[in-house]
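Contributing new records

If you add data, match the layout below exactly. Sequence lines come first and carry their own label; structure lines follow with theirs. Keep one chain per record. Anything else will be rejected by the validation script.
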Amino acid sequence: MTPELQSVLDRLEEVERHNRRLRGLTVFALLLSLAVLGFGLGTRVFPAPASSAPAPRTPGVVEGTRFLLRDEHGVVRGGMEVEPGGAVKLALGNQDGHMGAVVLLAQPTGLVQIQLRSPTGIVRAALNGGIEPSLALTSDDGISSAALLTKTGAAGQLFLSDRSGTLRRGP
């Protein structure tokens, strides 16, 4: 084979190799274009379901319906929650036999209540706010108690019960 013929064959082989690369690149570009076109048409024919826009967030605000307070051992020592009926409850402490608790409760009906509970869970004092506010105090054994009640359009009432459990109406 002559050197001129070899040179022509080498150049022909190089042109064919270049042609194969261009053909592969053309097929890839065509497939990519079809995929983008298909995606664009798909989003117009089948739009994504509209989601409700999230409420604007205020920096530094934490939101939720229930929060728990735990000590360093993981024991729940309090919490705050909004119950399904709309009542809001805040509890600090727990009735584990060692620690008392205070419970604040605000109901959608307008009743607001503060309870002081003994370590065993007995309500020792309760302040009820609402249409007819009241105050109740109870001993830990539940026998001795005092209650101050208000009535709309009537005089307030004081009730006392002694250790024997006898209920006495105050003056």
